[in-house]
Description:
Elements: E1 2-4, E2 9-12, E3 19-25, E4 29-33, E5 44-49, E6 53-59, E7 62-65, E8 75-76, E9 82-87, E10 97-104, E11 110-121, E12 124-126, E13 162-163, E14 170-176, H1 182-195, E15 198-202, H2 204-207, H3 213-216, E16 217-224, E17 227-234, H4 244-249, E18 255-258, E19 275-277, E20 281-283, E21 286-288, E22 293-297, H5 309-317, E23 324-327, E24 340-344, E25 351-357, H6 358-370, H7 392-397, H8 399-423, E26 430-434, E27 437-439, E28 445-447, E29 456-458, E30 461-465, E31 471-472, E32 475-476, H9 477-486, E33 492-496, E34 513-517
Parallel strand pairs: 2-4, 3-11, 14-15, 17-18, 22-23, 25-26, 30-33
Antiparallel strand pairs: 1-12, 4-9, 5-8, 5-10, 6-7, 6-9, 10-11, 13-16, 14-34, 16-17, 19-22, 20-21, 24-25, 27-28, 29-30, 31-32
Amino acid sequence: MAGEMPRGERxxxxxxxxxxxxxxxxxxxxxxxxxxxxxxxAVAFGxxxxxxxxxDVLFRGRAEPEAVPGAGTRWPLDEGTALRFSxxxxxxxxxxxxxxxxxxxxxxxxxxxxxxxxxxVGISLDVDADQDGVVEKNSPNKGIPHSPIFTDxxxxxxxxxxxxxxxxxPVNLFVCSMKDNYLFTKEIQTLAAKAGCKLKVCFGYIxxxxxxxxxxxxLGYTHAPHKSxxxxxxxxxxxxxxQLPIKELLGPDFGxxxxxxxxxxxxxxxxxxxxxxxxxxxxxxxEYPLGRIxxxxxxxxxxxxxxxxxxxxxxxxxxxxAPVELYSDWLAVGNVNEFVTFVPTSDKKRFRMLLASxxxxxxxxxxxxxxxxGQATMFKGYSGTDTKRVTINKVLSNDVLTQQNQYVQRCxxxxxxxxxxxxxxxxxxxIDLPALFKLDKxxxxxxxxxxxxxxxxxAKDLGIPKPFGPVAGGECCLERRIRAxxxxxxxxxxxLEDVASYHGSLGEVRCGTNVQRxxxxxxWWHCTP
Length: 529
């Protein structure tokens, strides 16, 4: 579409004895003070102009129609007398129109002249108002010349919705209050206090039995040069918590976006546990100062589950966090946060990427077996349904479980290669956390023990699902290995028991919580998508 610039009136100072040059914007007016430009002794004036100019004579602000040029019409010079002229078409060359004012003394004797050369210019703003990628120039309301004197291009961009990675500082931590998660909520409260952020509990009258806070909403922000404020993106899933963003978050300084598909969203890939964002990265010389969005998908298999197109298209349309699609359909729930997350560090890289790794778990268990701890038992104090005595030796001798985890590792490695390429990562930027999976009747993977990658990150304080791994020497060897991997980076690990409240329903700590974070210091309009 084409939009015209606002029309207005410019003031011009005529000078007797000379001719000046001026631009006349089509649709606007130029006002010239005749009385102030008159020489001494002048009592009247006349006007001549070329046909491209329209002229009004103003007496104390009131217009009087001008006579036909060349007819010899004269007007008395009174204080406040002025001219107002305009042009209806653009000039074909500079100074191709003119206005001449002649001044006369008593008796009609000519004294002097003042003149102005005018160049008519059309100023128009071409914008892609319908956002189809094409700037239309055929609006009937435009006075654009066939041979423009000057052209320029201006780009306007709509402020995007921006996701915040887990490496940014937390502001508010959200969790649902359920009948079976009281102790978990108390631990979360302690963790939030330690990290210096506020805990906001969503009670039953709002959550209506839906505990999956991470899946319902994604907390981001929008930013203009004069203001920044948080914006919640509401998931298309409808599991009971849909009133949360409207009743608890929406306000004068808290925005709300909801993308409702034509058909009911049923796939778990539409949950926002399936949308993550990386920290800022540099990839083959291209900077992504706001990181890149990660979306779980099924692209290796044409018949698999995908995120609903409405939400996916919205994420792509923001442009400043160019999305990367990963393969998550191999999981029963199918969310990317089940195998990847990011933690902040204080070194040059500023972050590490954590990946779930069955291979790392088997390496650890073999180490313990060689140390003579093969009888170390898993799931001590575990409140889930697995009550059989499971030892390191039993895990390592289970051929079916081994084959299943080899398949899972191949799926994760597929994503590992994509992430390395699309985020510009080296192997030294990646930390493999021990994890095991098993396949359900549909051949989809579920965690064998609580999945530690699906943690919450509150600055340097991590809330990690307690894995209930083999206890050797009075300590869970999985917890010990995770501490050894993360604590040297300045991170603090706190293992939270989430079996009854989340893990038993195929979720973890991260799935039951959500974090509002501080915006990036970087201004999005300084980057080129």
